[in-house]
Amino acid sequence: MRRVIPILLWAAGVLAAQPVTVTLLATTDLHGNLVPVDYVTGEPVARGLAKIATLIRQVRAGNANTVLIDCGDTIQGTPLEGVYQAIARTGADPVGHNPAAKLAGDPGGDPMMRAMNLLGYDAMTVGNHEYNAGLANLAKARQDAKFPWISANTIVAGRAAERAFAGYIVKTVGGVKVAVIGITTPVIPMWERAENLGAYRFLPPVEVVRTVVAKLRREERPDVIVVAAHSGLGRNLQTGAPEEPAENVVYQLAEQAPELDAIVFGHSHAQLEGRLVGKVLLVQPKNGGASLARIDFTLERRPAGGWTVVGKNSRLIPVTAQTATAPDLMEMAKPYEEAAQNYLKTPVATSARELSAARGREEDTAVVDLVQRVQLFYAKADVSFTALFNPEVRIPRGQVTVRQIAALYPYDNELLTIEGTGKMVKDALENAARYFSGNGMPGFNYDMAEGVEYEIDRSRPEGDRIVNLRWRGKPLLPEQPLRIAINNYRAGGSGGYTMFRGAKVVWRSGEDIREMVIRYYTERKSIPGEASGNWRIVK
Questions:
Q1: Distance from the Cα of residue 346 to its chain's centroid
Q2: Quick one: which of 215, 325, 400, 524 could link to 50 by a disulfide (CB 3.0–4.6 Å)?
């Protein structure tokens, strides 16, 4: 007996000293992609939470010590979510006249929250698009979630009806304490209507994270600290140049809060499989549920108690055509998807010819001009700016439905008219022309203008590519006053359009541009088939 006890104690000590692996799984910018369908074509596609669910469950089967989080922009973006949000807000479908699109009562709440409940998410960081449908819809979706919405740098000013978000969660898995701090991009007030924000205010993230980390160390003593940020990288990893650091703070956080173990992030719709900044691991999964981020932390027990991170690695697990869809999520999604598909079938107008957006970023096209025409009309503007969000858009000959219009303008952006100048227009076009520099500028930040004539000379250096810029047949003078139509994100300076930031807003639509496009062509019953030809690339 005297020999057995030491052997048992020795064995217990060896087992206690074994390393533990804790796995963090993360999604971001799901934007309502629950069902794996392309709402432009109606065809199956390799993305969406119903497919991500299979990957999540596969990882969990191999390691029960998992934490599952989402980095925000979750309840907006697809017709599935859009129809639900419209019905939840007004009782009508988004265009207000298609009873077939209506849900049969409330099938149980926000579809994305219900899907995430089924998957057992531990937390979701609040994204900027969570505010798009208004505070009542935000509160309802938040109530539908069986997990906390977190954002440490979002506060409630004064005594308001809004409910503050938790700043972080702490979860113990495999005996390891994991803390996840939520951070939201702080520039939302530059984009969103005041009534959609209420008393919510946004603090500088770096200072907030430092404060929260100190509090966690003092009160919770976590073994792993992760930030789940709805904010982009803020740094070009090839050149080292900062990129909209006020909006995108992740690189700053890694540099200035080096005690973090990892930052998983979103917002910019890019992807990053893993990059160390100091000892902080940065990871970004692809938007739309196209990939799942996996970070494995290896920890060893400290003699005095607690755990030490001795290794960490990351990968992005892609969704493929062969990735199975989760039957329980697909079954739950049925009534929402049926309503969305009925909405997409709503007739808008007819087109005398087939139109394509395939070359819409290389030449002026009738497809992009469909949006420009609407913006100039409602904004009573001299000049209009818009991007081509999806080059795969096709307008069929004959009947045109909401499906094509929703594909043409997928975002819930609001239209604004600002007081501007000729210089502002020139500067904006020069910023857009950076798209041709091969610097990774996303196509959705490449704006084209209507109401002026211009040429793009790609052989010239950045900042001097716009030539022969004219307005009403004459050279556009820098001091020329102009009414300019832009969306709310451009008005906030996002995408490098800082020349618009702070401009006087003389009108705002109060509704989404997509809804205005639908109404405009529904009233006119036909789709113009020719581009204005106001711009071209000369070299």
A1: 27
A2: 325
**Cβ of 130: how many Cβ atoms within 10 Å?**
24
Asked whether residue 252 is domain-assigned, the answer is yes
Angle between helices 79-90 and 111-119 (to 10 degrees): 120
Residues near 524 by beta carbon (within 8 Å), at least 6 away in sequence = 349
Q: What is the CA radius of gyration of the chain?
A: 25
pLDDT tens-digit profile of 342-381? Answer: 999 999 999 999 999 999 999 999 999 999 999 999 999 9
More confident residue, 3 or 89: 89
| One domain, residues 302 and 269 | yes
**Contact between residue 84 and residue 343 where contact means Cβ atoms under 8 Å apart:** no
Q: What does the block give as tokens for 354?
A: 């087939």
Burial class (CB in 10 A: 0-12, 13-18, 19+), 74: buried
Dihedral of CA 49/55/58/64: which sign? negative
- Complete DSSP assignment for 365-386: -HHHHHHHHHHHHHHT-SEEEE
Q: Measured between alpha carbons, how far is 266 from 231 in angstroms, rounded to an integer? A: 6
Gap between the Cα atoms of 99 and 92, Å rounded: 8
HSE, CB side, 13 Å, CA atoms: give it for residue 39. 34
Q: How many CA atoms lie within 13 A of 441 on its CB side?
A: 20
* Three-state secondary-structure class, residue 14: helix
Tell me which of 314, 338, 362 is where a domain ends: 338
Q: The domain that contains 64 carries what CATH number?
A: 3.60.21.10
> Is the Cβ–Cβ distance between 284 and 265 less than 8 Å?
yes
Give 26-73 pLDDT, tens digit per residue: 999 999 999 999 988 889 999 999 999 999 999 999 999 999 999 999
Write down how long the chain is. 539
Judge if 298 and 435 occupy the same domain: no
Structure tokens of 290? 């196209």
CATH number at residue 369: 3.90.780.10
